[in-house]
Amino acid sequence: MKQKLIVGNWKMNGSLAANAALLQAIKQGLPADNKAGVAVAAPAAYLAQVQAELAGSAIGVGAQDVSQHEQGAFTGEVSAAMLKEFGVRYALVGHSERRQYHGETDAVVAAKAQAALSKGITPIVCVGETLAEREAGQTEAVVKRQLAAVIHQVGHCVSELVVAYEPVWAIGTGKTATPEQAQSVHAVLRAQLAAASAQADRVPLLYGGSMNAANAAQLLAQVDIDGGLIGGAALKAPDFLTIVAAAQ
Length: 248
Ligand code: 13P
Description:
It is globular, with a radius of gyration of 17 Å. The chain is an alpha/beta fold. The chain has 10 helices and 8 strands.
């Protein structure tokens, strides 16, 4: 069976003390024979700390964003090369909170994915529809449009991506997509990737949106759900570890 991947997205949470405690607990609680890939996407300010805490562990360091630009006069931005210096393996791109609050377009998200890949960082490309879009029957069209922009940009590197389906209405709301709802969108994304790359099967398709210790196993049992992108539940070590345990 394909290895599953569980990524914690801490969003704008944490402190030096809280991060240290959380990472210690996660490191200690991971089963010795853990088979899942595990990573945490931390705020940029804490990447050095997270890199140091995770040195020698199998847990990957992730960033929550990356600049589309290589360097220069882009105040506040962090480049892929800078992330790479802190051992960053994954970068979220196009999280709905970035699309919504920072005006990121499909084109910007695609450029960010390309910037990450160019420095050997795996982009975790987030796609997902709003409640209004779902109710208007546009779910498929929206996620396909969002993913198409990235596929078009990265060309033959499609198989190097991770894709996360995060329905906006399920993020931080406690309303999870049902396993069937999530699976049916994942199947659409899988087919789209397959049309673009012979190696599309390699692309982990994560589900995100109120995934928690209680519902993870059912979601992860779906044929096209290869892992999870976890928000709130990633801030509590026992919950995060239960999700990792469900991904074995
Ligand atoms: P929640 O798990 O808090 O709903 O957040 C999901 C998410 O946005 C992960 O990127």
